Amino acid sequence: MPFQEDYTQGKDRPVLIVDRAGDYLLCLMLTSKDYDNASYNDPNFVDVGTGTWDRQGRPSEARLNRVIPVLAADIRREGAVLDRNRFDDVARELGNRR
Asked: What's this model's pTM, rounded to 2 decimal places?
C-alpha cells in the first residue's frame, strides 16, 4: 500500500494481511525499524523476520496497534507468504490485545 506518512515517496509500504471485513482486507504495517529488541521492547511491534517484501532482506516487524482496512483493488503489487508459525505468532500477539 502507499506510504501513508508521505504519498510523494512513490514507494509502497509492505503490510501483513491478517483478516477480511466485507470488501476490506485488514492489514498491519510492516517496518524494518527495530522496535522490539534487547534495549527497547515496544509492545506494539512483533518480529516477523525476513521475506521478499523487503528487497534488502532486512528483518521486519509488524505494528500491532494500528489495523488498516484496505480495499483488495488498492493492493498495488504481489505479496509474499509469511510462514504459518510466524503468522500464528503475530495473530496470537494481536489476539492478546482484545
From this structure: 0.82
